[in-house]
Amino acid sequence: MSALLAGETALARAQLERVAELTAGTPRGYRPMALSKLAGLYVDEGRAGDALRVAGECLTLVPTYPDGHFVRGRALARLARFHEARSAFEESIRCGTSAAFEHFVVDEEIAIWKAHNEIGGTFVLEQRYAEARQWLERALAARPGERSLMLNLGRSCEAQGDIDAARAAYRDVFEHFRDEIAAIEYVNFVFRHDAADGVLAAVEAALPFLGDDYRRAFLASAAAAMLRENRRDEAAGLLQRVLVVGGQPGAGRAVIKALAEHYRQPELDAILVS
């Protein structure tokens, strides 16, 4: 568990596999937790079949263990067995609500919002966005301000075509967290849907929270938006700002050149020369 918390997943997996081997057939209170954590690592590594097997071993020991049902649901979702996955997540909610104190270690957040989030994700993958929103909104009612829920709600609303609701969700994330991750998500949404003035306003709001690389990229992308509206002088001004970010004009020119190719706007790269 120390290795897992430290992000040393290979070491954590090796030790959890050893725990599973050493405690096979031996009653130990921590064995279900070890199996569920091991199954979770297998899911993260793309080994959904192994995860499903280990989750099954866990639930054979303790059929009411919420973490076991939850990781079983994650494995089934990776295998695109979405209906079965939702059943497993719903069972994790039921067990987490009614039997949380029976077990050695339980992730209490599973029953509060994590399983709801995963159920919403399965509906998104099936393009059943209205049902996804219902589960995500239920989870947010229980855990307001949870970043992953807020972002997933925004993505679901956007995919459903409810752009106003999606905009509100992405903006809420940005206003709540005021960090680079939130800024990137919000600005990228605006790039997908707004004209140049809206893009520039979002970029200006985000700049204080971005590192130099994203500052260059977003300012240059705003310039590209200006060029699409034939606002050449404003585009040139933004590109001049790209060159001074971090005091590294060479890095700025490289970003401008790359984005000119990406957007298929060669004038973006040529505008400062003319």
How would you sum up this structure, described in words?
With 274 residues, the protein is mainly alpha-helical. It has a domain at 1-107: Tetratricopeptide repeat domain (Serine Threonine Protein Phosphatase 5, Tetratricopeptide repeat), CATH 1.25.40. 77% of the residues lie in helices and 0% in strands. The chain has 16 helices and no strands. The chain has helices at residues 2-5, 9-22, 31-44, 48-61, 66-78, 82-98, 109-125, 129-142, 147-160, 163-177, 180-193, 196-206, 212-228, 232-244, 249-262, 266-270. Helix 4 (48-61) runs antiparallel to helix 5. It is elongated. The protein starts with a helix and ends with a helix.
Based on CA atoms alone, the radius of gyration comes out at 24 Å
> Structural class of the helices, strands and pairings?
mainly alpha
What's the helix count?
16
Order of helices and strands: HHHHHHHHHHHHHHHH
Mean pLDDT: 94
What share of residues is helical? over 70%
Main pleated-sheet profile = none
Strand content: under 5%
State the CATH class of one domain: Mainly Alpha
How many β strands by DSSP? 0
CATH superfamily of one domain: Tetratricopeptide repeat domain
Which shape, going by the Cα principal axes? elongated
Q: What is the distance, rounded to the nearest whole angstrom, between the alpha carbons of the first and last residues?
A: 60 Å
CATH names the topology of one domain as Serine Threonine Protein Phosphatase 5, Tetratricopeptide repeat
Assign the CATH architecture of one domain.
Answer: Alpha Horseshoe
- Contiguous uncertain segments of 5+ residues: none
